[in-house]
Design brief:
heterotrimer; A mainly alpha (about 325); B mainly alpha (about 280); C alpha/beta (about 260); B: about 280 residues; mainly alpha; MetI-like fold; 2 domains; about 0% strand; disordered C terminus; C: about 260 residues; alpha/beta; Rossmann fold; six-stranded mixed β-sheet; 10 helices; 10 strands; globular
């Protein structure tokens, strides 16, 4: 007889005729009711995700039909003539994110190596908690600090310094405003360091002790065992943490909007004001008049959404792969 | 050979210190932020600030009472909509989830969690604001509510799964049906963690600004009912920070102080509660 | 080639549980092969064998706890008082056939609430009646005198041995006719083990007990009948003193004399 009723995981095992009977019995016990009741709520989550994708897609139809794929490559952003292209914002998003990563990756990975490998456990846990608090600080607060602390510092010290020493690079030419790509990148870097640090630390802590002991037993210094044995073992997971941070940086809105300057232009100078995808949406959405304008902004949102979903998915796969069994070979 | 060994030792010391500095710099940034914000914000914080309406440009005084109330109202809607879905969805994943459905729901939650907050704003704009024709408290609250869901789902599932399955077996062996076992043993055992997770998620969305930009928008006055635009602390910080008026900027600091204090207190509290829970269960 | 001694109680008097031709599968892996056995009423039956031999799996089929694992299936028949357990209500079955697990698993509630749990959830006992029932169960579990002052403390504050007896009290509170014990002493010290063994003797007056144990001494001390499992088969089942003194099979003898891998 197919004795198959309930399991701890709630799924009936295969069992034919017995199943119908047990279904009714479980209905009487309330198990099926509880199952269906919770299922409805779980499916709501699924529905919301589908609805979100659908809404973004449907409400960018005008823009998608009018401009096609050239939307992503056009430089013009002209609300009067209703000609819209995403290139300046894609440029701004990439530039600010790259600056942020250039600063945050060494800082975050370095800090993670210290906390995972060298610091005493108590100190490591304490500092990690503080760093994770940093991740909980709302974006708008970073914007506030950006405006009143970082912009003055950039305008008075950092930008002039870069200009006088590296002014031969096109990156550091042109007038200094204080606001602009570089400042946005710096603010972003502070915001994403905690993610890189705390996840990289976790990945490093998951490296089996034999790895470092093996290197130490061969006469390696502590740094050598860490850099040559532990870090390579965890590299895919560290990469995952960087991807995750990148996804945050791309979608980051308020802090960037408050310090990037707000100009839809592409400039080789990092001192120049610009826009990221998220910040142009934040800035212009409520003022957008006309379907093409509004829907172009929504299409920008769709592009941002697709990008972050891909990055997030990749990041999760990478982190999962290393914390489970380390980087192969 | 000796030279080589000395060099290796030097590199060792240098790199160890370098990583230490990285950690220190990161921590120092947080401390600096806290200190600066506390110093500035505390300074401008007054009782009228918490209770009165904003004063017109150029006039002294005034406050953000409407934004304090507004953030409260937005969080209330968010909690009423987001928590039930997240909580019960989490129970489903932990206790009833089949393989395929469980995977799909988890994936959807991860997807929602990864959505940039500005995109969440667009979403609620298209499904709530457009049909209604105007910005509203309801729309802002729903935007925050949707953002709550993935966080609550995940923490609920995690904390319920952390309850040893032997407890449910113990209940089943007494002749208790599954759902009663879940409701009377697993949920109470996980309650502290689940509640902490909910609190953390509320603290997180309380500081969100981007989803409110074109859902609840802003309001210079007290917002009546649930269908009008409404002021909120993060929105006020944003608008006042980018304003050219000195007294508005000072109020932005004060509002930033309140918001940060709220977020940090909840996070630290949650940390303490959760670490205590573990030590009790081990003992 | 099952012995004819198998499948029938050694003395033909009242079998509480009658198992015939039981096969058990985890997915496509067979864990029990054609097990037949009669559990005598109001006595203690011990099941022994090397780990992985199927004795715990067998025990868990008796109150269908085995079904909490995914993709398992059973063939064969188990009769409780002559009634097929696969056609009775699952919840009602487990109320009649209680279980104590390998590691103590008290709920994260007070001592009192742990014992009262089954009565409360199964409906209706309240107030003084509930308090009386809790006291009676704790007394039957020989725990009352030790912990009557700690009734409203967390169950986790008790020692491991006390926790296990609390779990027994919790199972007894719903008045089961059969109590299944799955290596109940494996996590306990010798003194606590002795207390639980004593307890089992007193319990058999109004309860049928089946205990899985990895300790042959324990089986020999407490049980009236013993079954020896090997590789998913019940190789031998007999009165305990016969099985231990004159085992009918070579494998049994090897196992009980410790010559077994």
């Amino acid at each position: 007889m197919g004795a198959s009723a309930e399991t701890l995981t709630g799924k009936p095992a295969p069992g034919g005729k017995g199943q119908v009977r047990t279904f009714f019995r479980r209905l009487r016990n309330g198990d099926e009711i509880a199952h269906i009741f919770t299922l409805v709520f779980a499916l709501t989550i699924l529905l919301l995700a589908c609805l979100l994708v659908y809404e973004l897609y449907a409400h960018s139809a005008v823009s998608r039909h009018k401009f096609g794929w050239s939307f992503l490559l056009s430089r013009s952003w002209d609300p009067v003539l209703e000609r819209f292209g995403a290139l300046p914002f894609i440029y701004g998003t990439i530039v600010t994110s790259v600056i942020a990563l250039l600063i945050a990756v060494p800082l975050g990975v370095g800090g993670a190596i210290f906390l995972a490998e060298f610091a005493p456990t108590k100190m490591s846990d304490g500092l990690t908690f503080i760093v994770e608090l940093l991740a909980a600080v709302p974006s708008v607060i970073f914007g506030l600090l950006g405006i009143f602390i970082i912009i003055p510092i950039m305008r008075e010290s950092v930008d002039p310094f870069l200009q006088s020493h590296f002014g031969w690079l096109p990156l550091f030419q042109g007038p200094v405003y204080g606001v602009g790509f570089l400042t946005a990148g710096v603010v972003l870097s502070i915001m994403i360091v905690p993610f890189i640090l705390s996840i990289s630390r976790e990945v490093l802590l998951a490296v089996p002790a034999e790895q470092r002991e093996a290197a130490l037993a061969l006469g390696a210094t502590r740094w050598e065992s860490t850099w040559q044995a532990v870090v390579p073992y965890a590299r895919v997971g560290i990469l995952g943490s960087i991807f995750l941070a990148l996804a945050r940086a791309l979608g980051e809105t308020m802090a960037v909007t408050m310090v990037i300057g707000g100009t839809p232009s592409i400039s080789s100078s990092l001192f120049a004001p610009g826009y990221s995808i998220a910040s142009v949406i934040a800035d212009q959405f409520t003022e957008a008049t006309g379907q093409a304008y509004l829907q172009s902004l929504i299409e920008l949102g769709l592009a941002l959404f697709v990008l972050t979903i891909i990055l997030n998915g990749l990041a999760r796969l990478l982190i999962l792969a290393t914390t489970k069994r380390g980087t192969a070979h | 050979m000796q030279y080589r060994n000395a060099r290796r030792k030097l590199v060792n010391v240098l790199m160890l210190s370098a990583t230490g500095i990285c950690a220190l710099v990161t921590v120092a940034i947080l401390i600096a932020i806290l200190a600066y914000l506390a110093w500035n914000g505390w300074h401008y914080l007054t009782w009228t600030f918490l209770t009165q309406l904003p004063a017109p440009v150029g006039q002294a005084g005034g406050g953000m009472g409407n934004a304090v109330v507004g953030t409260g109202k937005l969080l209330l809607i968010a909690a009423l909509t987001g928590i039930p879905v997240g909580l019960i969805g989490g129970v489903y994943l932990a206790e009833f989830g089949g393989k395929a459905v469980g995977f799909a729901v988890r994936y959807a939650a991860d997807l929602l969690n990864g959505v940039p907050s500005i995109v969440m704003g667009i979403f609620i704009y298209t499904v709530v604001v457009l049909p209604m024709g105007h910005f509203s408290t309801l729309a802002g609250g729903l935007a925050l509510g949707v953002m709550l869901i993935p966080i609550v789902v995940r923490s609920t599932e995690d904390f319920m799964r952390a309850v040893p399955s032997t407890l449910l077996e113990g209940a089943l062996a007494l002749g208790v049906s599954r759902w009663k076992g879940v409701a009377t043993v697993i949920l109470p055992a996980a309650a502290r963690g689940v509640a902490t997770g909910i609190l953390l998620s509320l603290a997180r969305v309380a500081g969100e600004t981007a989803p409110l930009l074109f859902t609840s928008f802003n309001n210079q006055y007290w917002s009546q009912g649930w269908m009008q635009p409404i002021a909120s602390l993060p929105m006020m910080i944003y608008l006042y920070a980018i304003s050219p008026y000195k007294n508005w900027q000072q109020e932005a600091w004060a509002a930033g102080f309140i918001l940060l204090a709220l977020v940090l207190l909840v996070n630290i509290g949650a940390h303490i509660i959760l670490s205590r829970r573990q030590s009790v269960q081990r003992g | 080639m099952e012995d004819e001694a198998l499948g029938k109680p050694p003395q033909a008097r009242s079998a509480k549980i009658q198992v015939s031709h039981l096969d058990f599968y985890y997915g496509s892996v067979q864990a029990l092969y054609n097990v037949s056995l009669a559990v005598p009423q109001n006595q203690i039956t011990a099941l022994i064998g090397p780990s992985g031999c199927g004795k715990s799996t067998f025990l868990r089929t008796l109150n269908r706890m085995s079904e909490t694992v995914r993709h398992t299936s059973v063939e064969g028949e188990i009769l409780l008082d002559g009634e097929n357990i696969f056609s009775v209500d699952l919840v009602a079955l487990r109320r009649r056939v209680g279980m104590v697990f390998q590691r103590p698993n008290p709920f994260p509630k007070t001592v009192f609430d742990n014992v009262a749990y089954g009565l409360r959830v199964n409906g209706g006992t309240r107030g003084a009646a509930l308090a009386d029932a809790v006291e009676a169960s704790l007394r039957r579990a020989a725990l009352w005198d030790e912990i009557k002052d700690k009734l409203h403390k967390s169950a986790y504050a008790l020692s491991g041995g006390q926790q296990q007896r609390l779990c027994i009290a919790r199972a007894l509170a719903v008045n089961p006719e059969v109590l299944l014990l799955d290596e109940p002493c494996s996590a306990l010290d010798p003194i606590s083990t002795a207390k639980i063994e004593e307890l089992m003797f007193t319990l058999q007056e109004n309860c049928t007990l089946v205990i899985v144990t990895h300790s042959m001494q324990q089986a020999a001390r407490v049980s009236s009948h013993t079954g020896f499992f090997l590789l998913g088969r019940l190789l031998e089942f007999n009165e305990t003193n016969i099985l231990f003194k004159r085992p009918g099979r070579k494998e049994t003898e090897d196992y009980i004399t410790g010559r077994f891998g």
